[in-house]
Amino acid sequence: MKNIILSIALSLALAPALPAVDLVRDGKPLAEIVVPDGAGASVVLAAQELQAHLERISGACLPVVTNPTPEIKAKVYVGESEHTRNLGIKIDDVKYDGFKIIARDNYVALVGREFSIAPILGKYAGLEGGPGQRKLWEQETGKNWRYPGITDMRGRQFGVFVDDGTGTLYAIYELLEQLGMRWYLPMADLGIVYQETKNVSIREQDMKREPLFAVRQFNNGMGRFKDEWLWYKFMKLGTSKIFPQTHTVEYVLAAGTNNLPADCYGRVGGKINYHVPRLTSGSLRAETALFLEKMIEAYPGLEYVPISMPDGWLDMDDDDAKKWKRTEPWGAFSDYSWDFIMDVRKRLKAKHPGIKFSTFAYSEHKLPPNNVEIIPQDTSISFCQNSTLWMLPGFRRDLQVREEWMKKVGPDCMLVYDYYFDHAPPRSFPPIPVIFTKFMEENFRGMYGRATLGFWVDTSWHTGNEYDWCRCTLRRPGLSHLMVYLHNRFAWDDKLDLAKTLEEYYDLFYGPARKEMKEFYEFAEEVWSRPAARQISAGGGFLKEADVIRYFDILKRARARAGDSIYGKRIDLILSEMKPLETLFEGLKRSGPDVACPVTAEKPQIDGDLNKPFWRGREKDACILREMFAGETPHHVKTTAAFRWLADDSAIVVGVECFEPKMDKLVESCQDRDAMAIFADDNVEIRFETDKGIRPLLIVTSRGTILDECITENLADLPNFYTVREVAVKKYPDRWTLEAKIDTKPISGERPTKQSPWGVNICRQRMAGNKPEYYMFSPSGTVFFDITSMGNLSVR
User: Which of 448, 463, 40, 557 is nearest to 212 (CA)?
Assistant: First the structure.
């Protein structure tokens, strides 16, 4: 703090004297705030915010008027008006939702471009996030399509959406920043920093500021609370375009509930799948074009309409796959989807030549298409990336693929859809500080002047009832606020000095504890940047138990330094959010038994036969499964599991023998791979937790039906195309057996040792008896998927 104050004082002493407009002297108002009669809600709010914060800074309350008072010499004009036009101030040359600050001759003019979402939303504008949207959509279209939410319409305060472009309000906050105000945290009492003074003068200036990106939006309902809403606006978050982020084809398909022709849906494994589009279908192309025409009718001012694929789209129609499926990760469906996109675009352009289009580069269609050389200038993409995970080679590839896209699209035709949401409830991520300032700077530097459409960011959120004291939608604001703050700074300043900005933050926000908090954030970034799995487990992951000890040591030293001050309260917020970390590693310890896995140089033929030479000695190695709740060994049925590790470290082979006195009563209703119906059948679950914290799951029924996936609390850790390809079931009069070869490379699994064992559990669900029965290698007492009950597997 002392360094910043000395720096400011020296700068003022050396700088030439400039004319200024005096607003307050000795705590008394010298000026009035002039708002045009009939001003829009955002301009009225801007005047109110200026009045309130100036009073907090100086103690003086400047009057707000619609007609200037002749006796008051100094004027602050808020919003474009007859008065600003008479002064020759225009905003026609301001790009996007930018603004101007003009200060001279006893007046200050604060004017900006305004962009409101509401007129484009029309009759849908008052139905934010409710069932009324879909009901109205179905009435208007006569269809059972899903409602195409074109933007996040929550976060409406003061009659203004948080995503509205509010240039005049940005100008107000820019002026307040010149006076030393900072707003770091989405709670006004804890988050705002003021430089209090009894004299307020505005230096002479002729400033024009424009955002570097047309779209600057955060997803997941940000801004439902007043302080949080104003915090986002202080950081100048908003948009001057509506760029729809809708999974169009998924909404058209409506999972088979809308009576579309059968050829609209793909056949996977010979059976129709209502979640899979058949993109070569003329019926589906015509229906999608009709869907978009209805969007244009519903929103006549809409600039873009979306032609995007279903979310989580991982299967292709059997026949189409023979022609269209590519082999490379992230590009398997690219040519297929772009053939569809270009056809639907052509159909719409015939009737609406001025319309533009948006689509995703995401999942299996993230790579640029080979069948479209240059993307038309009327078609823009949302490139999905995970910049928070660029320490991992697989995600580092984002930068390479983004460069490939930039060669195919124009500079105003790429929007980046990024993910900052590790703390969001579906991820269940431990409350550690996710700090990635260097990745963020690299991210923006690579986009300035090259991908100017902007950003749409998914960040952490909660439902509003997670904390009793909750005052914002942003989850864990003590941990999350800094990265949100920096993101919005980078969106306006391509010359941002990151180091200087952080130093100012440490000084102003933590005062006497600035040294310790700088240490905290720098250590947090070091931990987060480690190139290891995000999944934290007993055996692996980027976070270590010693890191947790150091986090709390730094924070406690900072808290002691800050004392019972506002700085201490800010540190208390972080401490309260991180408290669950204190017991994290204790809760990750596995309570199950140890099991040693023999190594074999033999290459197995996976056929379900556990009596072949490959399994010699199995009787000695086999583990007996016990009843899940009581942990007792059953007498009426017996289940054993055995393991073999291949000498070349390429795979682990699992053999399970399920004795069954009622083979004719086996429940085997599920026929489709990866179908949820598998959980109702006689089955065996095989669960591992590798040394890198990855959790593969394989479920096999007595019929041989399979469900395979890789479970991890952070979806970004999922290996591409995770599939267990070699599984076999064999039946006998008194038992059924299964054999599975699980490749280690896709799950980042190195050979388990006693020092770094894998977690393991084998679980049998028996449905052939009088009632369901459950048996486990390591009984949990509750459920199959309790990772703390896992055993420890090592190779001997």
Answer: 448
Phi, psi of 512 (to 5 degrees): -65, -15
Q: CA angle, corner 420, sides to 416 and 423, nearest 5?
A: 160
For 219, the token pair is 């997803």
In the chain, ranges of CATH 3.30.379.10 domains: 17-117+153-239
Model pLDDT for residues 34-77, shown as the tens digit of each residue: 999 999 999 999 999 999 999 999 999 999 999 999 999 999 99
Q: At a CB cut-off of 8 Å and minimum separation 6, what does 627 contact?
A: 633, 634, 773, 774, 775, 779
Cα 211 to Cα 99: distance, rounded to the nearest angstrom: 9
- Contact call for residues 633 and 734 (beta carbons, < 8 A): no
Helix (H, G, I), strand (E, B), or coil: what is residue 350? Answer: helix
- How far the first Cα of the chain sits from its last, in Å, is 59
Q: Kindly report, as residue ranges, where domains of CATH 2.60.40.1190 are found in the chain.
A: 590-795
pLDDT in tens, 256-274: 888 899 999 999 878 898 8
Find out whether 682 and 768 touch, Cβ atoms under 8 Å: yes
- CA–CA dist 628, 51 (Å, integer): 66
In angstroms, the CA 644 to CA 646 distance is 6
Look up the CATH superfamily of 17-117+153-239: Chitobiase/beta-hexosaminidase domain 2-like (3.30.379.10)
Instruction: DSSP for 712-727, please give it.
Output: -SSGGGPPTT----EE
Instruction: Give the chain's length.
Output: 796
Single-letter residue type at 478: G
Across-strand partners of 381?
A: 359, 414
Look up tokens 């007046």; give the residue: 107
Taking every pair of Cα atoms in the chain, the longest distance, rounded to a whole number of angstroms, is 104
Q: Which of 468, 363, 481 shows the shortest CA–CA distance to 423?
A: 481
> What is the DSSP track for 255-303?
GG-S---GGGEEEETTEEEEEEE-TT-HHHHHHHHHHHHHHHHH-TT-S
Q: How many CB atoms lie within 10 A of CB 442?
A: 14
At 713, is the pLDDT very low, low, confident or very high (cuts 50, 70, 90)? low
Q: What is the CATH number of domain 590-795?
A: 2.60.40.1190
CB 256 within 8 A of CB 266: no
Yes or no: say if 424 and 457 are a contact pair by the CB < 8 Å rule.
Answer: no
* Radius of gyration for the alpha carbons in the chain, expressed in angstroms and rounded: 31
Distances (CA, A) of 706 to 314, 655, 668, 670: 17, 15, 12, 9
